[in-house]
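JOB MANIFEST
job_type = single_chain_structure
chain_count = 1
residues = 135
[input]
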Amino acid sequence: MQLGQLNISATDLLRLRDLLDALSSRGQGLRPDLRALQCRLDQAIVNAHKEVPEDVVTVDSEVRLSDGRTGAEIRCSIVFPECAEAAVGRISVLAPLGAALLGHRTGERVAFDAPEGPRNCEILSVQQRPESSSG
């Protein structure tokens, strides 16, 4: 799946680069999806938080998805790893689903590798939360 150019706030870009650099420096290397995210960050359109389009998934977005396999509706928030708690729908931006959703818009289909195998979903809606909640 061809990923579009990532639209991201300057604050989120810096935090994500720091997180990816820290993971890389551990000597384990990055998962393929995180390497792809790192490349997308290098080519990102960087904006002030208020200038990122409202229908774009960013860190701290609340997202409503349709599971491509079951059609079930899923609601989640994309958060930094320290705030992640999958059981209550807070998905880390570094998890396969979080990394895949980042930068995509309402109406787009997104493919990702879940622990149980390849998955896809459609973004039904995106709601932004205030910049202050992204830390």
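[summary]
The beta strands are 7-9, 45-47, 62-67, 73-79, 90-92, 109-114, 117-127.
The longest helix spans residues 10-25.
exit_status = 0
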